[in-house]
């Protein structure tokens, strides 16, 4: 490719027609002679005519896919409203709008803090698919003209780099190239190619730019979820652009890589190795979109796709909370599960449980049946779900005893979430915009999760993390047992605390879900934390509990000790009762910025500025040598009172007994070992 042009496409007509167009195709045979005599205008006309004749919009547009998103649309905005806004050159990226004058500057960054994701995501072009949808609905040529204006400005300004790594440049990172080719660009082509505004010159520049995408995706692709998006795009180029000499080779390469990545990126238990509910869906969607495109053209996808995607869908099902959402873990999202099964119910008709969750799940199922099992363990990903039933008011908890994951990780091992009686009660910091803000640093940290800090420091697996491909086949080391009366799960954090992970304390946590009432003691969870230092020093500990409630307060208990309780009216609440331990104190913070950020949660769509205070209990104590702290988590239905007035449990790590004191004078004796 020519490295000197000031505007794109970088690929010249001479090189494109001479080296990259398959002139053995009927309709393209005269191009070599036209190029030889220098009649490139005629070559363009011949190429454009054949390309238009080869397109099959009735096939492509039969695929069910919509382009909607809070990242690039206003809340509640219709497609018609969005299309008019786009014609005004008012574009939205990362939830932040900007009005361009005259022409879009595809390298612009109007954010107050130069948020790097804004220009990245601007170059994904979902607006082109929105204009295409509106054009198909109305036939109004304004939308075609607006689209061509956007394409021409982009292809002139944003030149493919000749040798930049896949994660370099604003407009040509390979993730954006894959997203464009696996999405909006193909919908735009099949919608606008007959418009008079999409003339031969526009069409040839389009095909040249698509070839540049294929070349870059083939030679500079990246890793993890990026690679799946990249290979989806490359495989679509290989199918939809048969005029390219490289099309079949690109298609073969992309499909082979996608098959390889199923083994490299998906644990045997079905979870994607970044261990986030968000990027788990990114992989599913990109495999599924490619499958749908190939099916529309009566082309097979590799046999390996179906069984692995089925396991990945099942992972979603097993995680679903009683309110029908998935939990926001690592860089995840609190997303509704039902829409994620739109295609799964068609591709796996034997799965009654898929139909159940798709038709409404725990809240209002209309067909199918939930799984027979309630609690569920992911032995490789390390997540363990403790579930009372599949009813919408059931108690549900998620324990994280897994590995660090590859990319998008949080320092959150042994984290615990809790949903009970119709609402989320224990949350976490969640996911937040990928900027350098205090909130971003907070959500990545241990202090944004429900686990334990040591000497004021966080976990630090990142300090010594090295990805190993063979780790995908290694169990996480989490232990569990599910029974009729109780479930339990246990795992340990052993990688150190502090800046260099040099504070040598092991944290072992066991969570026991008491599912059946014992006298006046209703269903609840016991959390047993054992802190095991490898030195003789005195260490300070801080157990964290992030309430997803309006308020929470510390209360003194009649049996001595303290509890932390929410008291939201007319809804479920949570009381947290740590066992009495010498020197133990508790306090609640919310919306704190100094001396460090604490008591926050991401809200809405985890874009910049979208966060709110979350009442967070800090239970603090000091100890020399090993120590055990037992904490009871007691959810109550609306209007109910927590009957627990004290928890008694020895701080000796060898101890296993727990005594729960109730308001009616009863003492319930429990043992960790059952």
UniProtKB/TrEMBL annotation:
Sequence ranges assigned to domain Heparinase II/III-like C-terminal in this UniProt record: 371-567
Coiled-coil region: none
GO CC, alphabetical: periplasmic space
Start and end residues of each Heparin-sulfate lyase N-terminal domain: 19-356
One matching Pfam family: Hepar_II_III_N
MF annotations from Gene Ontology: lyase activity
Cellular localization per UniProt: Periplasm
InterPro entries reported for this sequence: Chondroitin_lyas, Hepar_II_III_C, Hepar_II_III_N
Domain of life: Bacteria
UniProt keyword list: Lyase, Periplasm, Signal
Name of the protein: Uncharacterized protein
Taxonomic source organism: Litorilinea aerophila
């Amino acid at each position: 490719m020519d490295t000197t042009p000031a505007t794109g496409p970088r690929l010249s007509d001479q090189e494109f027609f001479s080296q990259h167009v398959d002139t053995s195709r009927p309709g393209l045979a005269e191009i070599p002679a036209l190029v030889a005599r220098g009649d490139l205008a005629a070559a363009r006309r011949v190429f454009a005519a054949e390309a238009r004749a080869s397109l099959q919009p009735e096939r492509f547009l039969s695929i069910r896919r919509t382009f909607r998103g809070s990242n690039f649309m206003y809340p509640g905005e219709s497609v018609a409203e969005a299309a008019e806004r786009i014609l005004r050159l008012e574009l939205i990226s990362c939830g932040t709008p900007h009005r361009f004058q005259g022409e879009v500057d595809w390298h612009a960054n109007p954010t107050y803090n130069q948020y790097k994701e804004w220009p990245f995501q601007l170059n994904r072009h979902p607006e082109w698919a929105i204009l295409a949808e509106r054009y198909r609905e109305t036939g109004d040529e304004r939308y075609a003209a607006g689209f061509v204006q956007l394409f021409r400005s982009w292809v002139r300004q944003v030149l493919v780099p000749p040798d930049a790594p896949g994660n370099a440049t604003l407009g040509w990172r390979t993730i954006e190239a894959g997203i464009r080719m696996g999405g909006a660009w193909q919908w735009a082509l099949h919608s606008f190619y007959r418009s008079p505004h999409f003339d031969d010159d526009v069409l040839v520049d389009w095909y040249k730019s698509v070839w540049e995408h294929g070349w870059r995706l083939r030679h500079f692709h990246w890793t993890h979820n990026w690679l799946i998006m990249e290979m989806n795009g490359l495989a679509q180029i290989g199918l939809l652009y048969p005029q390219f000499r490289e099309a079949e080779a690109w298609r073969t390469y992309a499909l082979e890589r996608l098959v390889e990545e199923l083994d490299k990126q998906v644990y045997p238990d079905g979870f994607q190795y970044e261990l986030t509910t968000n990027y788990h869906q990114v992989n599913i969607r990109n495999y599924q979109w490619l499958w749908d495109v190939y099916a529309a053209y009566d082309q097979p996808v590799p046999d390996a796709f179906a069984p692995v995607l089925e396991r990945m869908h099942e992972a979603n099902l097993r995680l679903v909370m009683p309110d029908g959402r998935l939990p926001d873990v690592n860089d995840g999202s609190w997303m509704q599960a039902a829409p994620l099964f739109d295609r799964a119910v068609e591709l796996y008709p034997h799965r009654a449980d898929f139909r159940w969750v798709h038709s409404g799940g725990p809240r209002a199922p209309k067909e199918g049946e939930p799984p027979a099992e309630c609690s569920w363990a992911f032995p490789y990903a390390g997540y363990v779900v403790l579930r009372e039933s599949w009813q919408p008011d059931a108690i549900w908890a998620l324990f994280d005893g897994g590995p660090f994951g590859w990319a998008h990780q949080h320092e959150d091992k042994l984290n615990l979430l809790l949903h009970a009686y119709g609402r989320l009660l224990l949350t976490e910091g969640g996911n937040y915009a990928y900027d350098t803000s205090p909130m971003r640093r907070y959500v990545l940290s241990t202090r944004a999760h429900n686990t334990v800090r040591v000497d004021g420091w966080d976990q630090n697996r990142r300090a010594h993390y090295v990805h190993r491909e063979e780790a995908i086949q290694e169990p996480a080391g989490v232990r569990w047992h599910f029974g009729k009366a109780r479930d339990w799960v246990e795992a340990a954090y052993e990688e150190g605390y502090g800046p260099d992970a040099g504070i040598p304390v092991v944290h072992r946590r066991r969570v026991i879900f008491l599912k059946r009432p014992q006298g006046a003691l209703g269903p609840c969870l016991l959390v047993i934390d054992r802190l095991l230092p490898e030195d003789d020093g005195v260490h300070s500990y801080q157990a964290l509990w992030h309430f997803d409630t309006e308020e929470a307060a510390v209360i003194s208990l009649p049996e001595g000790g303290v509890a932390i309780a929410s008291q939201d009216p007319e809804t479920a609440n949570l009381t947290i009762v740590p066992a009495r331990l010498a020197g133990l104190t508790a306090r609640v913070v919310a919306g704190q910025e100094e001396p460090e950020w604490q008591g926050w949660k991401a809200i809405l769509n985890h874009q910049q500025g979208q966060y709110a205070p979350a009442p967070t209990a800090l239970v603090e104590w000091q100890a020399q040598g090993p120590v055990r702290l037992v904490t009871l988590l007691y959810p109550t239905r609306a209007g109910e009172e927590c009957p627990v007035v004290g928890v008694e449990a020895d701080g000796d790590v060898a101890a296993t007994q727990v005594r729960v004191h109730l308001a009616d004078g009863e003492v319930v004796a429990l043992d960790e070992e059952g």
